[in-house]
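Archive maintenance. Older records in this collection stored only the sequence; we are now back-filling the structure field for every entry so that each record is complete. The fields below show one back-filled record exactly as it appears after the update. Entries are processed alphabetically, and Glycoside hydrolase family 13 protein is next in the queue.

ARCHIVE ENTRY
Title: Glycoside hydrolase family 13 protein
Organism field: Dermacoccus abyssi
Length field: 577
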Amino acid sequence: MSQTTTWNSQSAPAHDQTPEAEWWRSSTIYQVYPRSWVDSNGDGVGDLPGITSKLPYLRDLGVDALWISPFYRSPMADAGYDVADYRDIDPLFGSLSDADDLIARAHELDLRVIVDLVPNHSSDEHEWFKAALAAGPGSPERERYMFRDGKGENGEEPPNDWKAIFGGNAWTRVTDADGNPEQWYLHLFDPKQPDFNWNNEAVREEFLSILRFWLDRGVDGFRVDVAHSLVKADGLPDHSAHAKMAGLSDANHDNGGPMWDQDGVHEIYRAWREVLDSYNPVDDERYDSAGDRAMCAEAWVNPPERLARYVRPDEFHQAFNFAFLETPWRASDLRESIASSYASNDAVGAPTTWVLSNHDVVRHATRLALPIGEPRPNGIRAEDPQPDAALGLCRAKAATALELALPGGAYLYQGEELGLPEHTTMADEARQDPTWERSEHTEAGRDGCRVPMPWAKDAPSFGFGSGDAPWLPQPDVYGDLAVDQQDGVPGSTLEFYRHMLRERRARRLGEGALTWVEGPADTVAFVNSRDGHEDLWCVTNFGGATTLPDDAVVVVRSDERDDLTVPTDVTVWFTRA
Ligand code: NOJ
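Back-filled structure field:
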């Protein structure tokens, strides 16, 4: 039965229209996970020429930019987040000239390119780390990393009690040339990812130079990995709790540890911002404003006011809004999450971003079918209860429609436009995420969201590449969800995304003001208004079926009805006649 409603909007906007027109304030940015997008040479792993070949797909999808996860030289102990050379491309992915081609082609297609920067740690195969091991205790080479003597009579105990995100101890003891145990080094993640010492001037200088290296090649910005961990508390005090980083370990936030969100990180980003601002736009008439390079912080920091410190006017341009990603699928929680995101970002003049999936979390087409309000698992295994795929997709489409109607920037993760679910039945032997081994098989890890893209149902590896064996196995269901099965098909998830992105761009929704609407119970309803454009109304229904006002003209809806009914778990965008 329909409920009655007033559909009145509040008089004061909860978020004002974006006054400035910088692209990063309102763009839609698509994350490409290079290992898993397109494999152009049939070796089972995606690569840069593969990405370049599919850039027209992104232009047609209607996004403004792509962010590419790390493609640098790396032993791939953490899928490239263990960088051995920040100024070169791993041969697995191609060459520097392939990167130049990619950037140039993207710019031709009006797509901006964001690259991933990993400053907290390098690979243990980085030249600096090898030099640190060779040079021994007390050397300037060791000073660039976090080496310490162990505790105990013979230094046999780690310097403190920190645990690594992927499981196990955060310290590993090294041996000298004769095989005798000596100092320990810190690694917040895998032992193959030694943490840099950010109190060391050489480290700071090196990263300023790396920023320039990529800016000179024409990139439009950076996504900065674990931006909240570079500086550790003085004296590296014990931290009795597990060194959790919310996104990777579990949903029980504990960002207050001595390794996270220390005040000292901010001066680093102020220096970086100066470098970005010093770059004149690339030689292209579209880039007509100074300072258009942007950087986005991956910082799992709570509460939102604390995160907002990273996006003060002289620091990052954006930060991922993981609080939104983690908000339970409930009207009241989402309204509160959206409102607090705007309040904290507006207070520092920064745009809010919205994100639902990435390469570290269970895909939202699966996650949203999990029991509401329970901690988010780090991967799902075949032996775990299997989420309801239809419910997950229904909610995922509603959630994305809500996300894309919100003013601010939006991040999409490759394959979500196909409605790809998590691979929840992957054989344990196929797992590559170090989490699986390091957690002693207690956490499945992130492989299930990193499975190669299906482009064509009847091709080898569903069109991902000519080889038969992609680096991670694809579930059978990916065949029916392949791009060629959805392209041009009315009602497909792909066409739904294209339609939303077209409307979002044409109506400039990213730049709007948001005013809450008093909709039916159990809904999230708001108006997005922009000068010179019709008001766009958005409602997401979490309760029993309800109806739109009589004068509603539907623009987008996440289901396939063609009347004014809004069933449970559906989002509708509409205007008023
Ligand atoms: C966050 C990245 O998103 C994740 O994939 C990686 O494992 C860690 N940082 C460590 O670099």
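Update note: The chain has three domains: 1-17+515-577, 27-120+203-486, 127-186. The first strand starts at residue 8 and ends at 9.
Entry marked complete.
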